What we know:
With about 375 residues, the chain is mainly alpha-helical. The chain is built from 11 helices and 8 strands. It has 4 domains: about 1-115, no CATH class; about 115-155, no CATH class; about 165-190 and about 225-330, no CATH class; about 330-380. Helices cover about 45% and strands about 10% of the residues.
Amino acid sequence: MDAEGNPVYDMTKPIYKKDANGNIINDTSGNPIQVVDEPADTVATLISKINEASGGKIKASYSEMTGEFTIEGIDTGAKNGFTIVGTDKTTASNALDFFNLSGKDATTGKFEGTDLDIKVYGSDGNPITSKAIDDSKSSNSFTIDGVTYNIHGTGTSEMTSKTDTQPVIDNMKAFVEDYNKLMDKMYDLVTEKKNKEYSPLTEAQKKDMSEEEIERWEKKSKEGLLRNDSEMRKFMDDMQGAIFGDKIQILSEMGITSHQDYNKKGQIALDEEKFRKALETNSDKVYEVFAKDSSSVMENMKSTVKKYTGGSSSIFAQKAGIEKTASVAKNFYSEQLKRQAETIKLLQRKMDNKEDSLYKKFAALESSMNKLNSQMNHFAQM
């Protein structure tokens, strides 16, 4: 017996029925009354049999230090109770009652499971209610809004949650980097000077050059083609307006400004710490500015990009065409090329006609000269 009067068992010895004083009770023949059927059963073998028979769903254990015999279900919650049954595998058995196990329903013989019940209070002391919180939990470990809770005991606990802002910051940094690369490329194109030493090649010139030489030459000859292009410059200005517009002040407070470096015209700068603070203190405002509705930064940018590149009717499509659309064959530059080609054909016809006319005149002149020479020779012989 322990200090509280509970029987203490030797793990290695057979399990016998004992009286209130811990003495083994004998039967009428003077033999100790065993609690289980098999004479060789001990607390250790009983624990092993319970654990094996349950397929790992029930865990039995015994502490020689505290004298406590414990049987618990691995699966938690009210729906995961269990019953110790007899050899018929149906009727509840009292075979282990001598261990004084608690939690057993006196009527059904079932060891009932229980759900976790928690209450959450805000910093103002008022309860926070929501279905996710108020619903009973079948496990001591559960997740709400991406936060995992592990409950180890009853009582109260203070907790503070903090949004993981790093993924959003990483996405914003990637966006700023990609956007600035685009603006940098466009700025280079509209400020690039024309290389006057490289005129477009004629077909005759190409015949005397290798493919590599032609490629290098044509690359040089195309430099400066978009210098001061009005549509390109307007696109850069419109993108700045789409981002900042009437939000220039609030974006500045969030750490997003127009780049101050003159050589980085059209680019934006990100103050990472300011942006992090904005996310941590007022993430709803950040969402509102960037993505909430049609007036948000991202929607404004989307509309601007669509205006310039969204299909055959867009500004860039009408100017130079977009691959795999009808605008490839019909746009400002293609129409110019057609007109130039028609002009060249017209001039070629005029030149051919002029050439024919001159040939005819030359032939007539030559014929007249021959006649004149013949006449002069005739007079000379007289």
